[in-house]
Amino acid sequence: EMVLSQFKSALTKHGLKEINPAAQPFDPHQHEAISHQPSPDIAAEHVSIVVRTGYSLNGRLLRPASVVVSSGPATP
């Protein structure tokens, strides 16, 4: 865990940012939607589950975050 922590801090010093958008609004420029899923707790078009975190380097997207997007409460 210590080595991973040091590795991440070294990459952060060089401009790497982790994209972890849990419960944030869906942004198609930084997130890749895998599916939609109803959720009573999370508003529509917000990220409900982060499947894979994304990364950006000095403002440029390296890998989008793979996410499941909430479609709001289920309708009967």
Oligomer: single chain
Binned strand content = 35-45%
Strand order of the largest sheet: 1-4-5
The number of helical segments is: 1
On the 0 to 100 scale, the average pLDDT is 94
Q: Largest sheet, described in full? A: 3 strands, antiparallel
Helix content: 10-25%
How would you describe the overall organization of this protein?
- With 76 residues, this protein is α+β, with helices and mostly antiparallel strands.
- The protein contains one helix and six strands.
- The chain has a three-stranded antiparallel sheet. A three-stranded mixed sheet has the order 2-6-3, with no helix packed on it.
- A hairpin with a 2-residue loop joins strand 4 (54-57) and strand 5.
Question: How would you summarize what this structure contains?
Answer:
This protein is of the alpha+beta class and 76 residues long. It contains one helix and six strands; from the N terminus they run αββββββ.
Helix and strand arrangement:
Blueprint: H1 2-13, E1 16-19, E2 31-37, E3 47-52, E4 54-57, E5 60-63, E6 65-70
